[in-house]
Amino acid sequence: MTEQHTVVVIGGGQAGLSISWHLVQRGIDHVVLERESIAHEWRDSRWDSFTLVTPNWQCTLPGYSYSGGDPDGFMNREETYQFVRGYADTFDPPVREGVTVVGVRQSGSGGFDVDTTEGSMHADHVVVAVGGYHTPVVPRFAERLPADITQLHSSQYRSAGELPAGEVLVVGNGQSGAQIAEDLHLAGRTVHLVTGGAPRVARFYRGRDCVAWLHDMGTYDVSIADHPGGLGKRENTNHYVTGRDGGRDIDLRAFALAGMRLYGRLLDVVDGTLRFAPTLESSLDAADAVSESIKDSIDAYIDRVGIDAPREERYVPVWRPDREVTELELPTSGITSVVWSIGFRTDYRWLRAGVFDGEGHPTHNRGVTAVPGLYFLGLPWQHTWGSGRFAGVARDAEYLADRIELEAGVLPATATLA
């Protein structure tokens, strides 16, 4: 027997739960299918010292907000897991854990056929809420590293103590890579960090968290359609900063002064030798330029609105490389571990629908695809920069719920979707 539902939601993280909350409020029949358990990614795919980089006051989901005693703090891994898991407890969503979706295809009779490890379903609408980070990226030349070097992806890293003794190479300085490098450095390990084009942002400026300034400025509300970078923003790396120990900057130059070894982009591994592009100095300068440009925009906002905020001296680089290291011989380097932190690829092979671009990314407008009844939720820059944050996911979920309600014939045809 094929199970029938108005909506099938795939994914039981904060995105899937958010759309479920709205569907519950509207009385729309649905089921949420989760391959593992609710919110498991927060506990299973983060390192031990992980914290959010967004302050707690910005953690809101539909009908639910952070209610602890530290609104300006940053939840750690366990607290974030409990926040999302606790959200599910507030409205008892129809989540089925341990159910894997193995195939979704358009049905000849309309709607979608959904094949799962627990049988077949049919749905009028499908919401894909599995995020955009599926398959860890490790370059092919990693196969040429010596066999005695431990290799793992950033999603597998937990702590310095779980790595063998010796020095550690971290490849990639986005949010995860920069924070993992800091974690290893604070644990007393000698760290080699390969840098790329990731930008950075100051944690605090002129008396406030930069997130608070940008929130008030409406930066997180600018739609991707109105952003100067356009759809290309969806490919951008997030700014590196940390919420650890109450929040602070991550300054790679200061790490270098303290003994961390920095390199430009990793090109290849040849006969046990790492080869780097001479891009370190330009990468550091570019990251600093982004941070300072954000401060410029904050200054302009303060002046425009007439806010009485303390003045602050601008950042001055504390270190510059004497030379660009372009080769490093692994046998004599002391490196015993490599942490690959260069991102993820999407993997939607189970979803048979003509909604993907040449690189496998879904094409959509605010999560609505060209295939009637098929939606995506929880993607980076789905609608705004804020889409990658809890509050942004909540807003995106409401938009899709309104859309589903309209297409299901519950809302009048003249309804306007905000």
From TrEMBL:
User: Mind listing the UniProt keywords for this protein, alphabetically?
Assistant: Oxidoreductase
Q: Name one Pfam family in it.
A: Pyr_redox_3
Q: Where does the source fall among the domains of life?
A: Bacteria
Q: Cite the GO molecular-function annotations of the record.
A: flavin adenine dinucleotide binding; monooxygenase activity
- Gene3D superfamilies attached to this UniProt entry: FAD/NAD(P)-binding domain
Q: What is this protein called?
A: MSMEG_0569 family flavin-dependent oxidoreductase
In its UniProt entry, the species of origin is given as Rhodococcus opacus (Nocardia opaca)
